[in-house]
Write a structure and sequence with these properties.
alpha/beta, Undecaprenyl pyrophosphate synthetase, binds farnesyl diphosphate, binds magnesium ion, UPP_synth-like, UPP_synth-like_CS, Tritrans,polycis-undecaprenyl-diphosphate synthase (geranylgeranyl-diphosphate specific)
Length: about 325
């Protein structure tokens, strides 16, 4: 009897601890959200969802269990990003390197991705919220059933513009650039394009998903699972645009909304630092000019002093 009472007491204590923790957690999440909504939200977030198998391993479960839990988190992340006001979300679901995994795991992942596409397709929120779904990657390497679902969801959402969900499957950044270069070279050899027309804009247009409908520059790359690498993900779209990076320790199935909010806070801090740096540079130039000109070029100085005032305000 005493033993039984002790068990009930322990269970009650455990429940109370969890309850208090979740109240604090929700309050922290609420405050963090208010804080980040007061500043600029990144337009385009790219996510490397890593750590599904390690998470499952910790629990003594199978790899497919880890991937299934990870995919549930993916669904929540899409919702959070939409609610916060992100406009483009690109998810790294399957890299070209992932083909080196066992046949069983690769098949399992393709089935899981297919299942999620069908779910997103029949979810009324996809259509109410006007979410456009696109796939980037080498589709020739995908099984027919997955390509069918991709075509179905892309067709059904092609005119939606409120939110863009880009899913990278059989994707490699360098391979994307190679296919764009081949495509452009083909256009040049048939006379559709001239060499002089090849510039940044044209190359961007020939990257995945298809000529003319490229994925825009990335503002923030986020990776879970503890590794601090960007693994050949969107090199063209991320490198030229000085995007922010956020690496965090939780495995993908453990990823919470506060992790997403924290990553956005890092993006906002980088933006503020960049602005400050710019103001500082302008101030430096103005000071040099003031000393060097000593009354000459008053017109230029007037303009620069205006910039100086704006820069430090
Ligand atoms: C990386 O963890 C995860 C993947 C290769 C698969 C990610 C795919 C999903 C979560 C499904 C996506 C769903 C939609 C809706 C597109 P890992 O296998 O490398 O794990 P590890 O780092 O612990 O080995
Ligand atoms: Mg991994």
């Amino acid at each position: 009897m005493v033993l039984r009472n002790r068990e009930i007491f322990r269970a009650g204590l455990h429940f109370l601890k969890n309850r208090i923790f979740s109240i604090f957690y929700l309050e922290y999440e609420r405050r963090l959200e208010i804080e980040i909504l007061n500043s600029e939200i990144p337009h385009h977030i790219a996510v490397i969802m890593d750590g599904n198998r390690r998470y499952a391993g910790q629990l003594g479960k199978t790899r497919s269990f880890g991937h299934a839990l990870g995919a549930e988190v993916t669904e929540r992340v899409i919702e959070w990003c939409y609610e916060i006001g992100v406009k483009q979300l690109t998810l790294y679901a399957f890299s070209t390197e992932n083909f080196q995994r066992s046949e069983e795991e690769v098949d399992g992942l393709f089935n899981l991705i297919n299942e999620k596409f069908l779910k997103i397709y029949s979810d009324p929120r996809t259509h109410e919220n006007e979410i456009q779904v696109r796939v980037i990657g080498d589709r020739s390497k995908l099984p027919a059933f997955l390509n069918e679902s991709i075509e179905k969801i892309e067709k059904a959402t092609e005119n939606y513009r409120k939110f863009h969900l880009n899913v990278a499957i059989a994707y490699g950044g360098r391979q994307d650039i190679i296919q764009a270069v081949r495509d452009i070279a083909g256009c040049i050899s048939t006379g559709k394009l001239s060499l002089e027309e090849v510039d940044e804009n044209l190359i961007s247009k020939h990257l995945y998903p298809a000529p003319g409908v490229s994925v825009p520059n990335v503002d923030l790359i986020l990776r879970t699972g503890g590794d601090e690498r960007v693994s050949n993900f969107l090199p063209w779209q991320a490198n030229g645009s000085e995007c922010a990076t956020y690496f965090c320790a939780p495995f993908w199935p453990e990823f919470r909304k506060i992790d997403l909010l924290r990553s956005i806070r890092v993006y906002q801090a980088r933006k503020a630092e960049k602005k400050q740096e710019q103001s500082y540079r302008i101030l430096k130039v103005v000071n040099i000019l003031e000393i060097g000109n000593q009354g000459e070029k008053r017109e230029d100085l007037g303009k620069l002093q205006q910039v100086k005032k704006q820069g430090v305000s």
